[in-house]
Amino acid sequence: MIKEITKDISILGGGPAGYVAAIKAAQLGARVALIEERELGGVCLNRGCIPTKALLRTSETAAIIKRSKEFGIDSYLENTNWNAAIDRKNRVVKNLYTGLEQLLGARGVTVLKGRGTVLSDKQLLAQTAEEAIQVSCSKMILATGAVPLLPPVKGIDSEGVITSNEALSLDTLPESIVIIGAGVIGLEFASMFNSLGVKVTVIELQDRILPGEDSEVAAELFKIVKRQGISFILSTSVFQIQKINNSLAVTYTTGVKTSVQYCGKVLVAVGRKLNSDMFQNLPLHIEKGAIVVDEHMETNIKGVYAAGDLIGGKLLAHLAFMEGRVAAENALGNSIKVNYNAVPACVYTNPEVASVGITENEAKQAGISVKVGRYNFRNNGRALTLGEREGFVKVIADQDNIIIGGHIIGVNASEIVSELTLAITLKAKANDIADMIHPHPALSEAIWEACGDVLGRAIHKL
Fold first, then answer.
1. pTM attached to this predicted model
2. 321-341 pLDDT tens trace
3. How buried is 4 (Cβ within 10 angstroms: 0-12 exposed, 13-18 middle, 19+ buried)?
């Protein structure tokens, strides 16, 4: 027998977009049902952002120990206890997961743990471990996310070929790994494994790493991580993976030349596939795998909204947070929008990369005449005291000096990019940042100097 319940809003998917939508809707007084087949928090909390950064902290610590003599400490890295690192990662995830469960419970959200099926624009079926529950609702928010994309490569299902999901729970570190894809995911894992002593080779189809980032930033990161020992094979396509004895043989083609790279593991990091093919009972408008929504996150079906990875774009957890919030508010009668001009993006390599707004090339393609300011961290006092002189800040402004883009490569780039995100959100001018007092010594002074450089009046730049 099917149990029936009625809610104001039903949300399918408990990842960043879904759970934020649930909390926001509950804050606004709605009765909310949240259906999640796997873990609350989705990929980000359980198999993405959080566990990756926990393990990256381990690799960062290893890298600092290797450099300890630079800071007057005579030490060496004896070994890496990978299992202890995994245990720590699991504790971090569990702590946040428990907190999320408590948040949803405190807000009165009905969480249904099971597979959800959309029956119509007003009904879903949740199949939990105990029973089937039919949920009737006035509004619906779809937030089913995405999964790792597996390219059509022969042998892609061979033993030892993994995605980011499995890479976060390896029993032991391999001696060597080939990473297919030089985007955000591939490079973060490359940085992590390399710092922990794994021989890393990255194979990328395009002729550069981080295709979506500013070309100067990507070129600088490429030089730095190559010096750190990561090998790259660019403009190359993989067409076969074979298990040979205890190794994997990755066969790839560069132009007309075919070569083989041997390794212990292969990590596939070529992108993600959107979970948009599970709504047969809804005539949704879908383009290139993404559900099409309007500026209020509503689909072509009135009362049905979608948010997060499902609608395509940059596939960022913090963007999904905002899209989920906007979907919930608009479903309950408000009228707000996502500011897609001010969405920061971060790459947690060593050093980090962070960006917001448009790149210099994108501005040129759009016919926007720009002014560009730069400032190197090698001239920043705080960066030098930290022993982190690599990288720079690049600020892009239009002819009225309004900041429209910011790009950073350097230590803690993910933390200081928020100043530029705020500037773009408020449509601030380079003058505003250049005339603002910054703490000294601080990494953020590089943003201050780059904005000054836009105006031709940076203080500490020759």
1. 0.95
2. 999 999 999 999 999 999 999
3. exposed
